Amino acid sequence: MKILIIGDRHVGGYGLAAGQLSFVGHFIRQINKTGRTVSVEAYAHSTLTAVRTTLAQLPLERYDLIVMQAGKGCLDHPAGIGSLFINSSDNYTALSDDLILPKFLQPISVVKPQPVLEKVRERAQLLMLKSMALLGRFPRLATVSRELTSLLTVLRPHRHKVILLTPFPHSDSNQQWLRQQGKTLFMHSQVRQSFSVFDTDLIVRSREEYFLATQPGYLNAIGHELIGRALFDYYLAAPTIVAIHPIRRT
């Protein structure tokens, strides 16, 4: 069984200690327990545009299963809230988190703000984001929507063996709100009618215990294991996955 997995740094278990498995590792481990021989080809990219470019160059017909994880929350990439001011990802496919935020979105001072001030700043940013969305001035959302549509066009001929993962949650309230906006694109009825969509938000919540202490945007070992195991269960039950040899439940 040949599997293609493409997503962001979570695919490789970014930030995990030696010996700890990413969600991919847990997913494959569960398949191996059924007696299947599995080979995995994995890619990590920064944006949906980069993912599409790679997929267009791969022989997708040769894979038995294709798993696509929405890179870095989809909407909040390459650099959190600042990405909302980017109209295209074409020039940012190689970036990770090094985009400079606008001054009014940067921390109040170099010194870490007091908890109360930090809460006020976060709530002000969230109010601004919601206001932008309400007024229809959310250019990044429209761009990501186009990027996703273009990406799914490449995958559509192989939709019977594709699982899409919604953007992973984030422990920060502002980033989580952004990822929820990205999630709505994946949960749209037109997408779900063609593809199997695994809602990761049902498995891992926006709470600190699921994320790395130093990198709150990335899952820790617990988060990875929960996602990997749940993905295996979803894979067994996914209604549109019809081209894969059946796995006997154990």
From TrEMBL:
This is SGNH/GDSL hydrolase family protein. GO terms for molecular function: hydrolase activity. Keywords: Hydrolase. The lineage of its organism: Bacteria, Pseudomonadati, Bacteroidota, Cytophagia, Cytophagales.
